[in-house]
Amino acid sequence: MDEETKVIYGGCTGPDAEFIKLVSSDGHEICIKVKYTIVSKTIKEILQTRRILGRDQESVLKFENIPSHLLVKVCQYFTFKTYYTSKHFKSIPRFVIEENIMGDLLRVASLLHC
């Protein structure tokens, strides 16, 4: 395949981007598929607003109140929830949350409406 016909999949740019970049309060960046993030009503509404406004820019959401260790756990939950609700399972395993972050994670879940 020559350079003129190079096909690019995914990406974080444009209203139809496959991925979104989430940036934590301590500057860590996490790229995750948009279809996983719609578990969060807050993120879903932000993405719908951007699509309506037709913003053709990189899809980046910065969370000034969420440190990276919590944002990683939230992304794990997004993926877990999407996977187990998209297929038929006889039983769904328990999503494990460490006790030392439960309170902070509950605050984040409330902020993101998930």
Automatic annotation (TrEMBL):
Its main location: nucleus. InterPro entries: ELC1 (IPR039948), SKP1-like (IPR001232), SKP1/BTB/POZ_sf (IPR011333), Skp1_comp_POZ (IPR016073). GO terms for cellular component: nucleus. Residues 19-80 form the SKP1 component POZ domain. Coiled coil: none annotated. The keyword Nucleus applies. It comes from the Eukaryota. It is found in: Nucleus. Pfam families: Skp1_POZ (PF03931). Keywords: Nucleus. Belongs to the SKP1 family. PANTHER family: ELONGIN-C. This is Elongin-C.
